[in-house]
Amino acid sequence: MFNKQRGFFKNYGITAQQYNVLRILKGQYPNAISTSEIKSRMLDKNSDSSRIVDRLAGKNLVHKSNCKSDKRLVDVSISDQGLHLLSEIEPHSLELDNTFSKLDIEEAKELNRLLDKLRG
């Protein structure tokens, strides 16, 4: 599954974690949120959200700015390019979703339980 996912997102020049961040930012659009808030919403809590945001900024998919209320934080918002990329990916994302449709509800719950166990 992970190889299929990696190959899918590679076609768009991003990783699965970067896609997750873009989706989080799209949900906040047009507002910005801090990198710490992004991390709290990510599927993979062990991801380095700051590094992911830096890479997305380097690709012009997000905008970064200093937080007005707390100078230690960075606010992040999705750019027009980021929104455009998500609109390109969305119609094809069903390919990934179909991978999980092979599992029934009980199998999906068991998979979740096992993955949670592995994560500690």
| Class from secondary-structure proportions | mainly alpha
Distance N to C terminus: 21 Å
- Give me the count of strands: 3
**Average pLDDT for all residues:** 87
Level-2 CATH architecture: Orthogonal Bundle
| CATH topology type | Arc Repressor Mutant, subunit A
| Largest β sheet strand count, sense and barrel closure | 3 strands, antiparallel
- CATH class label: Mainly Alpha
Molecular shape:
globular
Would you write up a description of this structure?
It contains seven helices and three strands. By secondary structure, it is mainly α. It has a three-stranded antiparallel sheet with strand order 1-3-2. A hairpin with a 7-residue loop joins strand 2 and strand 3. The mean pLDDT is 87.
Keyphrases for this structure?
59% helix, single chain, 120 residues, mainly alpha, globular, Arc Repressor Mutant, subunit A, 3 strands, 3-stranded antiparallel sheet, 10% strand
